[in-house]
Design goal:
Layout (H helix, E strand, L loop, with lengths): L11 H11 L6 E2 L16 H13 L12 H12 L8 E7 H16 L4 E6 L4 H9 L2 E6 L1 E2 L4 E2 L1 H8 L7 E5 L12 H14 L2 E6 L8 H12 L4 E7 L11 E8 L5 H15 L6 H10 L2 H33 L6 H4 L4 E3 L4 H11 L1 E2 L5 E3 L7 H11 L3
Parallel strand pairs: 1-12, 3-4, 3-7, 7-8, 8-9
Antiparallel strand pairs: 2-10, 5-6, 9-10, 11-13
Helix pairs in contact: 2-10, 2-11, 3-10, 4-5, 7-8, 11-14
Length: 394
């Protein structure tokens, strides 16, 4: 039977990683893979995670299953972290998932169950797994304008015009903070305009928040999600703990469904449990357990917040250094957007041909759409990248 299988398109980021590994040049720079790296190129285990793991090793006495939606304490802690008091807890159904990607997949399946003919609006561009999963599920995608290649900022007029074409029963996927792949974010006033359009059209928002704490701070990065969820009758939120807790391989995520109709919570919660059962039965617990321990312990939480802030300010410093060096070399402020973007990523707004030229000529590896991982840089590689960009004529 397997002779009927067809080759699937290669994942561009994984292919880029393979190219990077095979490149013998010592001064090569990996700006492709989306993980945080410190100045030595290591993705470190956060101090609070180590402390929680040590405590868990001493105290845990069973590896039995947890519930279909995970430990309720993880749900409570994560809902509080992301939504705080923006909506009453009793309006939110929550289920643990294998990473943020698992939350997104479960969200799309939930949408498909509720309304098989739903159109899902995605920003252009967006994280490649968004359209990939939707296409696999056979769901209709509508793109809305987002990134302006000239200004390297948000095409807000285009965004609003496109979102106004949505209707009740459609879903609009929004990036809660640190837009991937562009790094260009909406400001507070623009978020209010988006909320007004959602209320006008009746479309349901879905917020993907994968980088809380990487942009302007833990609370500031959640502000847009909280504004959305407190303004609309229904909302879906897919949250990831991979980046802000540094537990990528532990696959720790959470899917939340908010409805102001509190009588709907029971059905929503039951449906999330059903979807988990069909997909993977019980969600992984190790990462979720560590997150719960940290968020519920004053000492570990304070240390985690401190280290997260160090990570955030390090990336912000790299952004400012790169923008300053490019200004020095070019005599122009055309790269000032790099200091304005937030999170791990920025999009240069150049062509795939120029991206390939950077790889061939200078060993600079970034995704073909010119998305680069700012966290892949350090003080020594910032001037190397800046010179390569100028030398390439970008």
């Amino acid at each position: 039977m397997f002779e009927t299988l067809q080759s699937q398109p290669a994942d561009k980021i994984l292919a880029l990683m393979a190219q990077y590994r095979e490149d013998p040049r010592e001064n090569k720079i990996d700006l492709g893979v989306g993980v945080y790296k410190d100045a030595t190129g290591l993705t470190p285990v956060m101090r609070a995670i180590k402390a929680a793991e040590h405590k868990l090793w001493e105290e845990q006495d069973s590896k039995s299953y947890v519930g279909l939606v995970g430990d309720p304490a993880f749900g409570d802690a994560t809902v509080k972290l992301v939504l705080d008091d923006s909506v009453p807890r009793e309006t939110v159904a929550a289920a643990a998932t294998p990473g943020g990607t698992g939350a997104i997949r479960q969200a799309f399946e939930l949408i498909q169950m509720a309304r098989p003919d739903t159109r899902v609006f995605l920003s252009n561009p967006t994280w490649p797994n968004h359209p990939s999963i939707l296409k696999y599920l056979g769901m209709e995608i509508v793109e809305y304008r987002y990134f302006d290649d000239e200004t390297r900022g948000v095409d807000f007029d285009g965004l609003i015009a496109d979102l106004k074409t949505a209707k009740k029963g459609d879903v609009v996927l929004l990036h809660g903070c640190c837009h991937n792949p562009t790094g260009a974010n909406l400001n507070a006033a623009q978020w209010q305009d988006v909320i007004a359009v959602l209320l006008e059209t009746g479309a349901t928002p879905m917020v993907d928040i994968a980088y809380q704490g990487f942009g302007d701070g833990l609370e500031a990065d959640a502000a847009a999600t909280r504004a959305v969820v407190s303004s609309v009758p229904e909302c879906i939120i897919a949250a990831s703990c991979s980046k802000n807790f540094g537990i990528y391989r532990e696959r720790t995520g959470m899917l939340m469904v908010m409805s102001t109709d509190t009588s709907a919570k029971g059905l929503n919660q039951q449906t999330l449990a059903f979807l988990n059962r069909q997909n993977f039965s019980f969600p992984p617990d190790h990462g979720a357990r560590l997150v719960t321990m940290i968020l519920n312990d004053d000492v570990m939480r304070a240390d985690w917040m401190s280290e997260l802030e160090e990570i955030r300010t390090n990336m912000l410093g790299l952004r400012k250094s790169l923008a300053a060096e490019l200004q020095r070399l070019s005599g122009s402020d055309r790269f000032g957007f790099l200091a304005e973007h937030r999170g791990m990523f920025s999009r240069l707004g150049t062509t795939p041909e120029m991206v390939e030229k950077l790889r061939v000529d200078a060993g600079i590896y970034m995704v073909g759409d010119s998305r680069m991982n700012i966290a892949g840089l350090n003080a020594q590689t910032v001037p190397i990248l800046a010179k390569a960009i100028i030398d390439a004529g970008i």
